[in-house]
Design goal:
The complex is a heterodimer. Chain A folds into 2 domains: 2-44; 68-278, MetI-like fold. Chain A has 12 helices and no strands. Chain A has helices spanning 2-44, 48-51, 65-72, 76-107, 113-122, 132-142, 148-172, 176-184, 189-218, 221-226, 233-240, 246-278. Chain B is mainly alpha-helical. In chain B, strand 1 and strand 2 (39-40) form a beta hairpin. In chain B, helix 3 (53-84) runs parallel beside helix 7 and helix 10 packs antiparallel against helix 13 (248-272). The longest helix of chain B is centred in the first third of the chain and has 32 residues, at 53-84. Chain B starts with 5 loop residues before the first helix and ends in a 9-residue tail after the last helix. Classes of the chains: A mainly alpha, B mainly alpha. Chains A and B meet through helix 1, helix 4, helix 5, helix 6 and helix 7 of A and helix 1, helix 4, helix 5, helix 6 and helix 7 of B.
Chain lengths: 280, 281
């Protein structure tokens, strides 16, 4: 009898201990993600002198010196502007080109569907930034070299597989019966799409667009290969890595991170849905 | 419009786009790699292979992938299992864990630079604890091991999220009945993990591993931010060929080497983790 109660007590205490270990690991893994970001934040919100001094304080002093220096650095704001332009073009292109294919994959059975899916999936198994090398020559011939549009074309190649897969999963989530009902009520295929389907998937389309924006915003290698005068922010930072002072690097890194944080927060609902479908 | 033609009209833009900007550049890069002064030649490859930095950069790239990818796989499987049991705060924890997904490799390199540089937080912490008297310049040629560690940590920190997302999505697709049945028959949590989760996750693991291994061979900006030229990797060498040595034929040849490596590993992963026909969910 006492043995039995002791046993029950034991399992309860081990379960309790397990629960603490579990919570502690979750907290620890959250810290593993957040603490390095916090360090970057401290460095960004410190004056240039503090950033280069030792030892570091673990509390930010809320000085905008580093950020002001970043904004005043020759060419930096232009690079920031270029980054936004390239990412915006990538965003529009990848949705305009990718969404129709996503719709076709979810609504139709057609010959060559598997082949097409393979082509799209295949792009992910290749180191795509390498394509920038031959394209550099091609772009010089066509006058696209060192332009935002030329770079956006390459970034669109990176973003298109994701645009197709996300829109495919979005369209698959909307029953075809809704469209069929609209057809019987006198809609054509096109008006049924614009009046019924489009309003329903607009938030998802936005998520896919944001994803394309982040892909372009973060891309370094192709940007560095394809632009010379009109560098994007990552390419410009990469170029200055050798000689730039620390506070410039950290402020630049911070500016790179902030939009990404907001964007991931905006698309978090779609992240998992899209990969779930993509694996089938 | 003809309903039979409609799907082809819809996929035409993507097909054309990928044809021009994905397939065609591969033809171009191969052409460039095999071109010499008089037509076809292997000279570019001989150049690349005989350069003293090639074996080191190949070794560094492969070693980095061999260490980073398994750690990420284990970590993301652990995180995904932890999240699947979670009731309260699941969304918040998942958001925090997927934050690095949006962070570029360059930014990740800079973030870890804040920790490892001479006046950085690691030195500050160690001097605060009295372990060292003087700040150590970790990222110098005297500490190649620390540079490697810093790069590996930055890569693990940044790119575990993409695997986590794929695996969490994959676990979501496994029918709950399997677990309930296993529980009825008294299978332990570990048994359930190895006998249900892992086998059912195969398609997701395939995707996750292919994506990560290919990205690991592409490692570039993290290395540039943390190691500079002290730790050569393949992508960095391609960049150097293109811009410092102005030899774009050699850059193309080395690009083909990276490409071949990526394809070889993709095929291996597909073979090892192949999903038996008719066994998908």
């Amino acid at each position: 009898m006492t043995d039995a109660t002791q046993l029950v007590g034991n399992t309860r205490s081990t379960r309790k201990a397990g629960r603490y270990v579990y919570i502690a690991s979750v907290v620890l893994l959250c810290a593993w993600v957040l603490v390095p970001l916090y360090f970057l934040l401290i460095n960004t919100l410190s004056s240039p002198e503090t950033v280069n001094s030792f030892p570091k304080s673990f509390i930010p002093e809320f000085d905008l010196g580093s950020l002001t220096f970043f904004a005043g650095f020759e060419g930096m704001l232009t690079a920031l502007k270029n980054s936004i332009i390239v990412a915006a073009i990538t965003m529009v292109l990848s949705v305009l080109i990718g969404a129709p294919a996503g719709y076709a994959l979810s609504r139709f059975d057609f010959r060559g569907k598997e082949l097409f899916r393979m082509l799209v999936l295949l792009t992910r198994a290749f180191p795509l930034p390498l394509l920038a090398l031959p394209l550099a020559v091609l772009f010089i011939r066509t006058g696209l070299d060192d332009t935002a549009f030329g770079l956006a074309l390459v970034h669109t190649t990176l973003a298109i597989p994701f645009a197709v897969l996300i829109t495919f999963s979005l369209f698959s989530g909307i029953p075809i019966e809704l469209e069929e009902a609209a057809w019987t009520l006198g809609c054509t295929r096109l008006t049924a799409f614009t009046k019924v389907v489009l309003p329903l998937i607009l938030p998802g389309i936005t998520a896919s667009a944001i994803f394309a924006f982040v892909i372009s915003w973060n891309e370094v290698f192709a940007s560095a290969v394809l632009t010379i005068e009109n560098r994007t922010l990552p390419a410009f930072l990469l170029q200055t890595l050798g000689e730039a002072p620390l506070h410039l690097k950290f402020a630049g890194g911070f500016i790179l991170v902030v939009p990404a944080l907001i964007f991931i927060f905006a698309v978090r609902k779609y992240l998992f849905a899209m990969w779930g479908i993509a694996n089938r | 419009m003809n309903a039979r033609l409609l799907p082809y009209m819809l996929i035409l833009p993507v097909t054309l786009f990928l044809g021009v900007f994905f397939l065609y550049p591969f033809v171009l890069v191969a052409q460039q790699a095999f071109s010499g002064s008089d037509g076809f030649s292997m000279a570019n490859f001989r150049d690349v292979f005989s350069y003293w930095k090639f074996p080191i950069s190949l070794k560094n790239t492969l070693l980095l992938a061999a260490i980073v990818v398994p750690v990420q796989l284990a970590l993301s499987l652990l995180m995904a299992t932890m999240v699947s049991k979670m009731k309260k705060g699941r969304d918040l924890v998942l958001y925090v864990w997927t934050i690095p997904l949006g962070i570029s490799d360059l930014a990740a390199g800079i973030i870890w630079l804040a920790i490892f540089e001479q006046s950085g937080f690691l030195n500050s912490m160690m001097s605060g604890l009295g372990v060292i008297d003087q700040p150590v310049n970790f990222l110098s040629y005297q500490h190649p091991g620390v540079i490697f560690l810093a790069i590996a940590l930055a890569e693990i920190w940044r790119a575990t999220a993409i695997m986590l997302v794929i695996i969490v999505a994959g676990i979501g697709l496994i029918p709950k009945e399997y677990y309930e049945a296993a529980e009825v028959f008294g299978a332990s949590p570990w048994k359930r993990f190895t006998k249900i989760t892992l086998p059912m996750l195969r398609p997701s693991l395939q995707t996750a591993l292919i994506l990560r291994v290919v990205l690991a061979f592409e490692v570039f900006a993290v290395v540039a931010a943390l190691g500079g030229t002290l730790m050569p990797v393949l992508m960095g060498e391609i960049y150097a060929y293109q811009f410092d040595l102005l030899n774009s034929n050699a850059a193309a040849a080395l690009a083909l080497v990276v490409l071949a490596l990526s394809i070889a590993f993709t095929v291996i992963i597909l073979r090892v983790l192949r999903v038996p026909k008719g066994a998908s969910i």
